[in-house]
Design goal:
There is one protein chain. With 424 residues, the chain is an alpha/beta fold. The chain has 14 helices and 16 strands. A nine-stranded mixed beta sheet has the order 1-16-15-2-3-4-5-6-7. A seven-stranded mixed beta sheet has the order 8-9-10-11-12-13-14. The protein is globular. 35% of the residues are buried. Bound molecules: zinc ion (2 copies). One zinc ion binds next to loops.
């Protein structure tokens, strides 16, 4: 048989097999589905009960200080079966990710900040002001380390942020429910080793030192119901992490962009790439070495740009030193953790969200009583919290008529009188 004949015989045989398979398939296949699939391997926020013994962790930021739409900077949300929720780091862009989970803001009031780089607390203002506007009715509570000097500590950073927003707050007080526009800072010693910084409702959070850029950074552990969650924030591999992250169910540790990618994609000089990528941060190979030592039930690597052409390289580098369970985190990765199982999925979220449900009824604007209190606290004089005569006189009176209509519409639709504010 020459080659041509052989090919023809093969094709004929192949064709006959294909026809038999197609006929068999048609006879045995189930009807085309019209019902919802029973199992979908994604997490849709707000659709699943959390077991009383279960922890759910959602990555709300896994990227870098250099912002990009695909990845916000460091932020992980921890939800516990007892209803408690905790946020670890609140990096630039992460508040948008959190909003898409549609959790009432009163339950998003506990934020732990590992260090004060912008990519780890750059969205704090959005949680402070946007969170209050979206329904938080109490203070935003923040835990973070002190520093070698007072101005390098968390309390200083938060106070200055609040001062930076003096105009913003002055422009809201009296006009909205103002109860959520306050901050509570719990600053603790960055040198404390495995010290308890939070203990409530069966949950214990501890802090231990990290090594990163300057004195001050820390890592955290959260323990509840026999489960242990570790969040490293940023750090060079250190002895405290190796000791206190042992027995972790989920251990999150930074794993920085590999040095060659820092040079080719981030335009670093080789000197800077090597310094930043291996000495200030944790290189993928070093991440693997740390995880091989502590052996968590699941190791989570974050703090690199996770792209089609870089992820395999990060994975290969980690695998030179670590062969255990591994998640290469990206935004909206979800871990459901119980004593028996760790399920890893991606969340599919609603992007165009409005405010989530309120935890309690909102109060009408506090008016001058709120302004007086704010004036006392901030030092802004009471008269500066209202328009001057100069600005008031600039209001265009011809719009009055249509706006009276809006008040009238609300009064009719809601069944009570809303008097139109009369001009002074
Ligand atoms: Zn940092
Ligand atoms: Zn960082």
């Amino acid at each position: 048989m020459n080659i041509k004949n052989r090919a023809a015989t093969f094709l004929a045989g192949f064709g006959a097999c294909l026809i038999v398979l197609l006929v068999m398939g048609a006879a045995n296949s189930p009807p085309s589905p019209v019902e919802p699939a029973l199992e979908r391997d994604v997490y849709y926020p707000g659709t699943e009960a959390l077991g009383t013994d279960e922890m759910r962790v959602i990555a709300c930021g896994t990227g870098m200080p250099t912002t990009r739409a695909a990845q916000a900077a460091a932020c992980f949300l921890v939800e516990l079966g007892n209803g408690d929720k905790f946020i670890f780091d609140i990096g630039s862009g992460s508040a948008e990710r959190i909003s898409s989970l549609q959790i009432p803001y009163d339950f998003l009031d506990k934020i732990f900040i590992g260090h004060l780089h912008a990519d780890h607390f750059g969205s704090l203002a959005e949680m402070f002001i946007g969170g209050a506007l979206m329904g938080r009715q109490g203070p935003l509570r923040i835990w973070g380390p002190n520093g070698p000097t007072p101005e390098l500590g968390t309390a200083y950073a938060v106070q200055k942020m609040k001062e930076m927003y003096t105009w913003d707050l002055s422009g809201r007080v009296g006009l909205v429910d103002f109860r959520g526009y306050s901050l509570e800072v719990n600053e603790f010693d960055y040198k404390a080793e495995n010290a308890v910084i939070y203990e409530h409702n069966g949950v214990t959070v501890r802090s231990f030192p990290a090594i990163h850029a300057l004195d001050g950074p820390v890592s955290f552990s959260l323990e509840w119901n026999g489960l242990k969650f570790i969040f490293g924030s940023d750090t060079y591999p250190n002895k405290w992490f190796v000791e206190y992250a042992k027995d972790a169910d989920l251990a999150i540790h930074e794993c920085f962009v590999a040095a060659p990618d820092l040079i080719s994609k981030m335009r670093f000089t080789p000197e800077a790439a090597l310094m930043v990528g291996t000495q200030v941060h944790t290189a993928p190979e070093a991440f693997g070495k740390v995880m091989q030592q502590i052996k968590p039930r699941m190791a989570v690597a974050y703090h690199f740009f996770k792209d089609f052409d870089t992820t395999a390289g990060v994975n290969d580098r980690i695998r030179t030193t670590y062969d255990g369970p591994l998640s290469l985190a990206e935004d909206f990765m979800v871990w459901n953790i119980t004593k028996d199982d760790i399920r890893v999925r991606m969340a599919v979220v609603e992007e165009a969200t409005w405010a989530p449900p309120l935890a309690g009824p909102a109060e009408p604007p506090g008016g001058d009583a709120d302004r007086a209190q704010f004036s006392k606290d901030s030092g802004v004089p009471m008269e500066a919290l209202l328009y001057s005569d100069f600005i008031k006189e600039g209001r265009w009176s011809e719009v009055d008529e249509v706006l009276r209509g809006v008040y009238q519409e609300a009064s009719e639709n809601l069944g009570r009188e809303f008097p139109y504010p009369e001009r002074e």
